[in-house]
Write a structure and sequence with these properties.
It is a single chain. The protein has helices at residues 24-38, 48-52, 56-62, 70-82, 94-103, 116-123, 142-153, 167-176, 190-194, 205-211; strands spanning 11-14, 107-112, 132-135, 160-164, 179-183, 200-202. By secondary structure, it is an alpha/beta fold. The protein has a six-stranded parallel beta sheet, with helices on both faces. Helix 9 (190-194) links the parallel strand 5 and strand 6. It is globular.
Amino acid sequence: MPKDDDVTYKLVIFDFDGTLADSFPWFLDVFDILAERFKFKKLDRSNLEALRRMDNRELLKALDVPMWKVPMIGAHAKAMQGENLDKIKLFDGIAHILDELRRRDVRIAVVTSNSRENVEKVLGPSAANISHYECGASLFGKAAKFRSAMKAAGVGASETLSVGDEVRDIEAARECGIATGAVTWGYAAPDRLEAERPDHMFALPSDIIAAI
């Protein structure tokens, strides 16, 4: 649903992988390596669309990944990504959107489970537009990071928009009482995100500016 015309967002909190950075193809390339190392199911690429319609809890169950392994898998994936950052680029149009938000005096934060070093390297010159980073978020620990970003920016929940590509991004934003935005170009299937009824659905990066 569209935002209230009286609301002006002063802070936009972005997820990184799948939202700002096109890392999904790289993730598919290394998935089976991670599966073999940490002893969970390899990816059935013939069933990829069904997997994209699952939230994280459903996906972990389908792949037989116990929660206690998640931090180790995440840490290893970040290290692997750090060695292959040349294969990961920002989505087309993202650099312009970050420039435009900064030009409009909108604060920008990045909240991600990825490392700040990886994020800044992929962002390149666009990193200058980011006012706050909250990196290393646990799989279901984004809400606390959102609150920390709002506190650092001095912006309240009613003036904050979260933009992500997964169901957990929507859940965390709602836990904090902030507006939810879901992008259609990331990890989760668009119809799965739409079923969560976020405040905004973004089909193109330019749609984000229209929502501000």
